[in-house]
Design a protein that fits this description.
Structural class: alpha+beta
Largest sheet: 3 strands, antiparallel
Helix content: 55-70%
Radius of gyration: 22 Å
Order of helices and strands: EEEHHH
Mean pLDDT: 94
Strand order of the largest sheet: 1-2-3
Strand content: 15-25%
Shape: elongated
Distance between the termini: 50 Å
Length: about 120
């Protein structure tokens, strides 16, 4: 069994041996949304016991990876902001810098609101 990420979806694929062609045959057993991977009852019933364990391990690893990505983003944000300050300091960026600045302002406002809402700043 393996997991193939396709855009916003994760395909769960079972590989079985086809004696006639002497090759492995892939069968998509089910799909999960990457944003919030919930295992539907139909998928759970289609999986064998060992495949359910493998899916649970994959989901656990996927969740851990998401947590680590978020932590890395927070831990490197001060450095990234410093680099952005240097980049925006170059006056030769013109319209590109203006467009990026307009995209950054709402993101910064949302982060600031989250910090305030959770009591990290006044």
């Amino acid at each position: 069994m393996h997991f193939r990420e396709r855009g916003n979806v994760v395909q769960i694929i079972r590989t079985t041996y086809d004696a006639a062609s002497k090759k492995g045959k892939n069968e998509i057993v089910g799909r999960l949304q990457k944003a919030n991977p919930q295992v539907p009852k139909t998928l759970e019933s289609a999986l064998k016991a060992d495949e359910r364990k493998e899916l649970a391990a994959w989901l656990d690893g996927y969740a851990t990876l998401g947590r680590l990505k978020r932590e890395l983003a927070v831990r490197t944000l001060p450095e990234q902001l410093g680099l952005a300050e240097e980049w925006f300091g170059d006056k030769n960026k013109g319209d590109e810098a203006r467009v990026l600045a307009l995209a950054l302002i709402p993101a910064w406002s949302q982060l600031r609101a989250a910090l305030k809402r959770n009591g990290f700043i006044e």
